[in-house]
């Protein structure tokens, strides 16, 4: 039975398979022709089109072919299509474009099959088995601020989409837990809490304030500065007392980060900079054997073609830096973790750093020189979060906005809005709290994810918490409305899935059914291009298509009630999967 439930690939992949057979039959002498299938830009022409005719014609013209132009080529492709209940008809337009209209019954049957077998059967098929998604990655002893929000949310969604596509994902938190700042933090700890070893974690309290105070001391007191610099050497040399102090500071920080991750529903596995430290000499030795490392002004560097400044891998004082750690982590992920795709989610400001160390890895033969071959490394850059004034988002006292405060405010604003609508009387306190949290946190995530990640976006509570337009609030309410239609019908939807049949006779029903079927290829495209906003666009369009259907097609009490309730259920199911991939908790009543 299980084989029936296997992923069938996206609608686009299924069409491509048919056209691949037809291309092989019509043009047996031409090898390696990939079917070019795409959604029609204008639905008036058809649902999909196949665009191979023109390029095929360019390959065969003047070589004694019987064809007289791209149109007959297109005609031959259509004539050689294997029999399938998928396609209703094909027509040829312009220079051989093949417009495809899908069979209504096939759309209905496919949607209904998903209702029975589960949406997992719609998982796209990707050419990778194991990926590393390196995201969030805050610095120890500093608060997580709004800049970390984007990396955490975008990284989590990419990981969720890949996991849905049956890829094994190693979610890596590459925290900044190693480096010169630990010297001053440790010395300050010894000074402020002389009995820090006496048992429980020292009551440092606000780690951010502790960091600032130690930095001030470092900048103003030469003796302290010298002690701090020596402390770095002791820590990196493995001195037990210093290692223990370092571990305590990291642990306090980790607990703070965890609070944020729990609120956001984000799961990460920490492998910080310190983890890769023991492997650095080996990685640099491998690069050196390839003749890539040179001496320059007392440092050891790798020169990168087309870049003015070389990549420094060992500093003048013999210390390691970001580049040494990042190259080593890449080596580890390729060789120890056997990943075939490494995805790094950081702000666009770091793009050059990634270009340089990816380039070094290609020269070393660790990565293939062709961008499209695996294993590959990708930098997922994102823009800044701006305030209303168009500048970096900060608090009134010009501090960076703390993530915890931001999430608290989103939740409390939602709670207030629900209370104003009289929900405190209708719901239990727990329902009110859970809904406010789902909608508030969901709104913050969606406002970020719906933009193309490369652009800066303006953080605006009023806009993100509006129930109109392309917002999480609007979409969550749309989902709750669908659930309420099904509830009010009084029918048993599980029973209907087994006994009822779906028929998409009305054009708005057919349009909604087709849009549902396109879900897998949108997820595939969002994964391949590392663009979560494609999924947001799909979800918003889905809710618009549903509204159109619901406006023009009576559901409860109509002759088509069973079929239309199944269509409602399929829409709710796909919306829920979209929410899940975006890390948003759905709400079932409003």
Automatic annotation (TrEMBL):
GO terms for biological process: arginyl-tRNA aminoacylation; post-embryonic development; reproductive structure development. It holds the Pfam family Arg_tRNA_synt_N. Keywords: Acetylation, Aminoacyl-tRNA synthetase, ATP-binding, Ligase, Nucleotide-binding, Protein biosynthesis. GO terms for cellular component: cytoplasm. It is an enzyme of class 6 (ligase). It comes from the Eukaryota. Its EC number is 6.1.1.19. Residues 475-590 form the DALR anticodon binding domain. One of its GO terms (molecular function) is ATP binding. It catalyses: tRNA(Arg) + L-arginine + ATP = L-arginyl-tRNA(Arg) + AMP + diphosphate. Residues 13-102 form the Arginyl tRNA synthetase N-terminal domain. Forms part of a macromolecular complex that catalyzes the attachment of specific amino acids to cognate tRNAs during protein synthesis. This is arginine--tRNA ligase. It comes from Nicotiana tabacum.
């Amino acid at each position: 039975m299980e084989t029936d439930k296997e992923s069938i690939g996206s609608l686009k992949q299924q069409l491509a398979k048919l056209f691949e057979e037809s291309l092989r039959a019509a043009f047996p002498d031409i090898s390696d022709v990939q079917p070019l299938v795409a959604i029609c830009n204008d639905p008036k022409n058809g649902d999909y089109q196949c665009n191979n005719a023109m390029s095929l014609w360019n390959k065969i013209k003047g070589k004694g072919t019987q064809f007289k132009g791209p149109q007959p080529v297109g005609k031959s492709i259509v004539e050689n299509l294997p029999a399938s209940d998928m396609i209703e008809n094909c027509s040829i337009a312009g220079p051989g474009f093949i417009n495809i209209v899908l069979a209504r019954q096939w759309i209905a049957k496919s949607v209904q099959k998903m209702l029975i077998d589960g949406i997992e059967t719609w998982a796209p098929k990707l050419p990778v088995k194991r990926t590393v998604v390196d995201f969030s990655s805050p610095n120890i002893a500093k608060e997580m601020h709004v800049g970390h929000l984007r990396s955490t949310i975008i990284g989590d969604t990419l990981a969720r989409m890949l996991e849905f596509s049956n890829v094994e994902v190693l979610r890596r938190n590459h925290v900044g837990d190693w480096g010169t700042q630990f010297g001053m933090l440790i010395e300050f700890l010894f000074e402020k809490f002389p009995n820090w070893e006496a048992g429980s974690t020292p009551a440092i309290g606000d780690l951010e304030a502790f960091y600032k105070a130690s930095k001030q001391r470092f900048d103003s007191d030469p003796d302290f500065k010298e002690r701090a610099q020596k402390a770095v050497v002791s820590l990196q040399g493995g001195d037990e007392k210093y290692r223990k102090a370092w571990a305590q500071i990291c642990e306090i920080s980790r607990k703070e980060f965890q609070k944020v991750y729990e609120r956001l529903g984000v799961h990460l596995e920490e492998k910080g900079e310190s983890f890769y430290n023991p492997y650095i000499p080996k990685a640099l030795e491998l690069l050196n054997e390839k003749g890539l490392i040179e001496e320059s002004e007392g440092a050891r560097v790798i020169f990168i073609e087309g870049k003015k400044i070389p990549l420094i891998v060992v500093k003048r004082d013999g210390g390691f830096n970001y580049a040494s750690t990042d190259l080593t982590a890449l080596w580890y992920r390729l060789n120890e973790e056997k990943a075939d795709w490494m995805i790094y989610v950081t702000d666009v400001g770091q793009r050059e750093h990634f270009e340089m160390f990816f380039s070094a890895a290609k020269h070393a033969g660790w990565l293939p020189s062709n961008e499209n071959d695996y294993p590959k490394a990708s930098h997922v850059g994102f823009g800044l979060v701006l305030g209303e004034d168009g500048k970096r988002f900060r608090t009134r006292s010009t501090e960076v906005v703390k993530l915890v405060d931001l999430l608290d405010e989103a939740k409390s604003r939602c709670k207030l809005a629900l209370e104003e609508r009289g929900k405190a009387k209708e719901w239990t306190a727990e329902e009110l709290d859970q809904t406010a949290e789902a909608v508030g946190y969901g709104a913050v995530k969606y406002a970020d994810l719906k933009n193309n990640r490369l652009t800066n976006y303006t953080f605006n509570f009023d806009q993100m918490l509006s129930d109109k337009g392309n917002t999480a609030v609007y979409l969550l309410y749309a989902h709750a409305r669908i659930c309420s239609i099904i509830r009010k019908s009084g029918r048993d939807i599980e029973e209907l899935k087994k006994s009822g049949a779906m028929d998409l006779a009305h054009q708005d029903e057919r349009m909604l059914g087709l849009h549902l079927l396109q879900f897998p290829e949108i997820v595939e495209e969002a994964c391949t291009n590392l663009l979560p906003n494609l999924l947001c666009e799909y979800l918003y369009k889905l809710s618009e298509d549903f509204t159109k259907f619901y406006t023009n097609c009576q559901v409860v009490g109509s002759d088509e009630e069973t079929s239309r309730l199944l269509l409602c259920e399929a829409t709710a199911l796909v919306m829920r999967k979209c929410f899940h991939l975006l890390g948003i908790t759905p709400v079932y009543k409003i």
